[in-house]
Amino acid sequence: MIKKRHKYRNRDREIEVYAFSNHICMSAHKARRVVDQIRGHSYEETLMILELMPYRACYPIFKLVYSAAANASHNLGFNEGDLIISQIEVNEGTTVKKLKPRARGRSYPIKRPTCHITIVLKNIFLDEEYKYINKYSIW
Fold it and tell me: Name one GO biological process term (predicted).
């Protein structure tokens, strides 16, 4: 499930787009290994990095980045070339617990960890323009 939320900042200028993905079936530690490699990169660089990395966590993160960028371009009219990943975080979700039957009537627990991923894309073109306006404004 992917939830999207827009953050309105700087006098009705939207420069950040949020996207959430909840209950991904992998541990947060494995997802953080991939997320640390793409934090701060541009959108196009991020897609290339995620396509070439050999980890299983890359595909759900790739889908989330792609979805957030499509949402930013469709709903807010941003150019995908101007987007960078300003924040991305991975939090631990619930753990799915099952019992696996074993020999002689015993059972062993199986734990499937899940994680939640939050991504924030920022439009650097609007961010630089806002910094320039605030630097030379007198209000």
Answer: translation
Homologous superfamily (CATH) of 18-137 is Ribosomal protein L22/L17 (3.90.470.10)
Global pTM reads 0.79
Residue 99 near residue 107, CB atoms below 8 Å: yes
Angle, helix 58-75 to helix 28-38, in steps of 10 degrees: 50
pLDDT tens digits for range 14-24:
678 989 999 99
- How far is the CA of 68 from the CAs of 4, 6, 35, 83, 87, in angstroms? 8, 10, 15, 10, 12
Q: Please state the φ and ψ torsions of residue 136, each to the nearest 5 degrees.
A: -105, 10
Name the residue among 22, 20, 26 with its Cα closest to residue 88.
20
Q: Nearest 5°: CA angle at 134, between 132 and 135?
A: 65
The domains of the chain are located at 18-137
